[in-house]
Amino acid sequence: MTESTQDGEIHDGEVRGDNDAAGVSRRGFFLGAGGFAASGLLVGGVAGAAGGFAAGRGGSETAATADVVYPFFDQPHQAGVQTAPQKYTVFMTYDLSTVVKTDVQVLLARWSAAIAQMVKGAPIGNPEPAGDSAVALDSGEAVGLGAQGLTITLGLGPGLFDGRFGLASKRPALLRPLPDLPSDQLVAGFTGGDLCLQACADDPQVAYHAIRNLTRMARGTASTRWTVTGFGRASAGPNQETPRNLLGFKDGTRNIVDDADFERWVWTDGSDQKWMDGGSFMVARKIHMNIEIWDTDRISDQEDVFGRNKLEGAPLTGHKEFDTPNFTKKNSDGQLVINPTSHVALAAHENNGGIKIHRRSYNYTEGIDDLGQIDAGLLFVAYMNDPEHFIKIQTRLGSVDRLNEYIKHIGSAIFAVPPAPKRGSYMGAELFS
Amino acid sequence: MNHVSPRRAALAVTIVTVATLLLSACSTSAGSNGSGSTSGDSALAKVSKGASQVHVSLESKGGKDVCTLDATKAKAGPVTFTVKNVSSTAITEVELQSDERILGEKENLAPGLGAVSFTVTLTGGRYELYCPGADRQTQAFTVTGKAQQTSSNAQTALQSGITGYAAYVTQEVNNMISATDALNTAVDSGDVAAAQSAYAEARPYYERVESDVDGFVLPGFTPTDNAGNLDYLIDMRASNLDPKVGWHGFHAVERDLFQAKKITASTKTLAAELDANVKKLDALTKSLTYKPEDLANGASDLLEEVQTSKISGEEESYSHIDLLDFAANIEGAQQAFAYLQPGLTIIDPVLTKSIVAQFASVNTLLEKYKDPSALGGYVRYTAAVKSADAPTLSAAVEALHENLAKIAEKVATA
Fold it and tell me: Radius of gyration (Cα) for chain B, nearest Å?
């Protein structure tokens, strides 16, 4: 998240040179941690000692991710936003079932302490406690897997500030339930939430373990509302090769990666609510894809829908992925080369008054639906300092995007993301002081 | 519904032995090699507000989680431990122990929350402050002088609770005999409606106490043979049938009365056999002895029953009176808890209070489903009710279950 943890991940020898926020060259990286990574000695079982390894991720991810630790306390922002996207996620939303303010306070404090433990690769209490009648606090399935770059990002939904807990005066003015947007086909069971947690890690079981145990901690205070388990990060961070969504196209080519853009478009300041200084807003959308229909669409049409070619990911007006799209270029027939109702044309900041949001999405699959069709799509997660930016872009996309024929927004929620806690405190502490 | 062999009598003997071992072993193991900075000999707790004041601080220092006391000695009498988690994420609870008995404790000690305290009256002797997760988990604490012994109050209260609970279980099983007698008579008469209603009358008795009485194996049978497993013979559901032994008991009768809605010769045999097996159960129940943790585990197991077979609608798949069984499981758990309550209040008043409130909220939820005109007094647990309300019911029970699961350890070590 901070420079020191942007660890210069390398895929197949490719490095995205223009966004080397980590300031760590490939060579420099290997000098720093390569000795361990190459020998594999760091994998597993040393989590307790791993606190000092702020960064260290080699070309061979599976062998070297066990000991990637992102610091939790005393950071300018929560991890899991600017952090280079890990491979897997478990996203969970909750309804507060308690009406007692201190229950919420204790939950956020317990969650924070537990997260601080788990991101080090440490359990939350002994999975095998002494005494026959003792019940373990930690379920144990992450023991020995290491930290795996685990981050857990907390979001606070509008419901937390609805007056039940006397927190109405602390509500960020911009935190309101999203309005109905064009093409929304929301399913009640996949919307909203008073709280959310997004665990991301390079091992799926580490992410799962985190959410499972944090959910257990919430029993009696908050109950589960909706959840998505994701894989195959569908947005690139600095130095990551742009990954692909389940439609087979690169996703996140023009994502925000540098600090200046984060300052300008992602992080909130304390001018509205002091406790949101260094925070952000998170929009989560569950987007179902009509996989079967898409798969039979001819390649030229698929590329027209996106406005990019499929393998390289280049705009149809260019040759390379990072070529800037030319939205006015016409072909010999006088037609715009990039269809104005293509996804890239509608989403581009050039066509949205300069607006940018930071996307950090994951693919998901949930088996098959009741028609026997593949139930899969994208858990779209975006961070921004004004939810109106998402609303504006999605209003355009929802109205005319050619992609709408192949996707369906079925889930939606918005959350305020508080800044990272100071050591000795917890996430959201300022709400209770 | 576990197929467990008889265990209570044997366990009782084992526990006595273990307890003796602990008494002799414990005092030598407690932090005697401690070289920490906290064991200053002069650290006698200051007395204020009539109690010795000890401050416990939980901190993360140099990558280690440490638990520090500002005094390691106190004069006999009331001692107040005030605990503040300054920065430790690994330590979230602190217990004061004596010979591995918990005398006082605090949980939910996350960094950023205010200091909390507990007061215990201690007489001269060696104690340990146990901070699970700390670099050095056990800190010695010494008390000099004599104080009136009050720490055994919890044990006395728990013991008297056990006696009361044993009588309750005996009574329930005894009443079950009258109910299965009535079911048998109604089935014999051939009147399906009367038999259905007698079935619903009989069910709650078993559901209130099943976690205490589900472990009996009849003489001459091995524990792996369901033909001698009384719980199997009385309460087995279609989903867990052993083809070698076939179907017996309540739910086999339920199938005839509510699915075929016919009483056959086989129904009559099943009802008579059920009645006879309940009488065997009654005789065996009288031999049960309990320890406090048996009541706690029993209550927790009844909640597990609610979660696994009532909320799923699996228990009463023909009669759909699952909510009646649900209420009976809760009532049985609440009885067990109520008998532990006087002792548990001394050990952990906060947890006790929260469990009382959680039982109340589950009962309030159940109130909504009461219907005097329905069989068994609750609305039928149909697919529609289940899909609309199961998540709410499940969440309420889950919260209660999580807390009930904490009791056994507390009462076992009281």
Answer: 26
Residue A286 in 3-state DSSP? Answer: strand
Cβ <8 Å between B111 and A105: no
Contact A378, A246 (CB under 8 A): yes
What is the distance between the alpha carbons of residues B410 and B355, in angstroms, rounded to a whole number? Answer: 14
The complex's ipTM? 0.78
Distances (CA, A) of B399 to A370, B336, B359, B403: 32, 18, 10, 7
The chain B residue lying nearest A73, using CA atoms, is B87
Distance from CA of B122 to the nearest CA of A (A): 24
Q: What is the pLDDT of residue A234?
A: 77
Q: How many CB atoms lie within 10 A of CB B137?
A: 17
Chain A residue whose CA is closest to B65: A117
φ, ψ of residue B202 in degrees (nearest 5): -80, -30
For B81, counting Cβ atoms within 10 Å of its Cβ (0-12 exposed, 13-18 middle, 19+ buried), the class is buried
Q: Which two tokens stand for residue A152?
A: 């857990």
Contacts of B64 in chain A (CB under 8 A): none
User: Residue B335: is its pLDDT beyond 80?
Assistant: yes
CA–CA separation, A91 and A197 (whole Å): 6
* pLDDT tens digits along B226-284: 999 999 999 999 888 888 999 999 999 999 999 999 999 999 999 999 999 999 999 99
The token pair that represents B347 in the structure block: 């050990």
Report how far residue A319's alpha carbon sits from residue A271's, in angstroms, rounded to the nearest whole number: 44
Residue A344 Rama label (left phi>0; alpha psi -120 to 50; beta): alpha
Contact B391 A125 (CB under 8 A): no
* Structure-token pair, residue A145: 């897997």
Tens digits of per-residue pLDDT, A187-204?
999 999 999 999 999 999
Strand partners, B96: B104, B129
Beta-carbon separation of A219 and B399 below 8 A: yes
* B326 contacts: CB under 8 Å, gap ≥ 6: B306, B310, B311, B366, B378, B393
pLDDT (tens digit per residue) in A279-304: 999 999 999 999 999 999 999 999 99
Is A423 in contact with B63 (Cβ distance < 8 A)?
no
Residue B138 backbone phi and psi in degrees, to 5: -120, 130
| Integer Cα distance of B174 and B286 in angstroms | 10
Beta carbons within 8 Å of B167's beta carbon, 6+ residues apart: none
B92: nearest CB among A105, A110, A429:
A110
Question: Residue B171 is encoded by which pair of tokens?
Answer: 């009574």
Nearest to A280 by CA among A144, A76, A34: A76
**In DSSP terms, which residues pair with A411 in a beta bridge?**
A286
**Contact B412/A at CB under 8 A:** yes
